[in-house]
Amino acid sequence: MRIAYLHQYFNTPEQSGSTRSYEFARRLAARGHEVHVVTSDRDPDSRGSGWTHASVAGFQVHRKAVSYSNAMNPIQRIRAFAAFALSSARFTRQLRADVIFATSTPLTIFLPAWFASAWRKTPIVFEVRDSWPTVPIALGYLPNPTAQRLARALERKAYRRSAHIVALSPGMAEDAVAHGADPHSITVIPNAADVELFDVDPSRGREWRRSNGIAEDAPLIVYTGTFGAANDVEYLVDVAEAAVKIDPRVTFALIGEGARLSAVRERARDLGLLGGTVRILSPVPKSDVPAVLSAADISTSVVTDNPAMNANSANKFFDSLAAGRAIAINHEGWQADLIRDREIGLVLDRTDVSAAAAQLLRLATDRTWRESAHRNARLLALEQFSRDDLAALLVETLERAAQTD
Questions:
Q1: Can you tell me the distance from the alpha carbon of 349 to that of 39, in angstroms, rounded to the nearest whole number?
Q2: Is the pLDDT of residue 40 over 80?
Q3: Residue 65, φ and ψ in degrees, nearest 5
Q4: What pLDDT sits at residue 70?
Q5: What domains are defined for the chain?
Q6: H-run or E-run covering 315
Q7: pLDDT tens, 43-59?
């Protein structure tokens, strides 16, 4: 069958960020399906303003030039969302797909899917990567009541018009049901662990430490991801300040970019940590993340203090599992339950950074505990979050949807 795979922020392993759509698209293609990824070129200055087309790993990628970065303010982001929705709608319709798979965020990705399916009854499978607009409303990104009502109306339309819904966590599925989705039309397919990608020789981790001037015996805490308001990476800087008082060797490597990058850097500088205890490094391609995590004692995933964030399905959590690394988070929810039940890391105290620092260092320096957490993480990755297993579930979901009238 021909699949139109709509994802505004599609990445390949040569880029930084999530590669979920890449990994799923190539597996759909390997299954014999014709896959067309419709996405954006976020840095189009050198390549013009039109569409570009390329064959990637057995499927086609169609990119429309629409500038975007994590440093944009909310109004700029909304304009980018709308621009892509408008430009991709006609193109997607011309593909005449058998099924349309639209993955958020943003929620506006449903608009081109809806247009492309109109009058043709092409089934849509809608993937919820974040609970939009629940999260933007909760975090204050969408304060206007009229905008909130419009967003909720689009959300309800997406749920009711879609043949099936894929949610990335149980909490996202619950939020979808609360806002109009049929619970019998939802499949939870979380982010996945690419175990083969992260199965690297330990020498790569040692080399990464050497190339970044980090001592081999230094307890190393790593964050890889977005520096956004929803992430609260400043929390890790504050934890680092408390941790270095306990163990001067400790190093926090914070890797990424985003709207809060300058604030995080300034916070580390003000505390006298920048360049020493706290290293702020540029984002790396997904293909380089295995070396980073191989070097780490503990990987982290942090969010701002808001219950709406507890349902997240952050890629960094699953990368840590695939790499066989202990994971530390600062929120409750389904991932916190997994950490406690499977003994794969820590749920840090969100408000007491001194307590969080002591927790991290105890795990990082207790070899027996740390190695047990590493083994448990890898085992959990294999048992519950194998990319091949989850991709097979997605393939089945799309094939069933394509057979609906």
A1: 39
A2: yes
A3: -70, 110
A4: 66
A5: 2-192+386-402 (3.40.50.2000), 195-384 (3.40.50.2000)
A6: helix 315-323
A7: 756 455 689 999 999 99
At 295, list the tokens.
């070097």
CB 88 within 8 A of CB 38: yes
Q: What is the pTM of this model?
A: 0.92
CA atoms within 13 A on the CB side of 401: 30
What is the C-alpha separation between 31 and 111, in angstroms, rounded? 28
Q: How far apart are CA 164 and CA 132, in angstroms?
A: 17
CA–CA distances in Å: residue 377 to residues 45, 314, 328, 382: 42, 15, 12, 9
DSSP-based three-state secondary structure for 171: helix
Do 41 and 15 form a contact (C-beta atoms < 8 A)? no
- Cα separation, 244 vs 258, in Å, equals 26
**What is the C-alpha separation between 97 and 339, in angstroms, rounded?**
41
Tens-digit pLDDT profile for residues 205-242: 999 999 999 999 999 999 999 999 899 999 999 999 99
Tokens matching residue 145: 């009541």
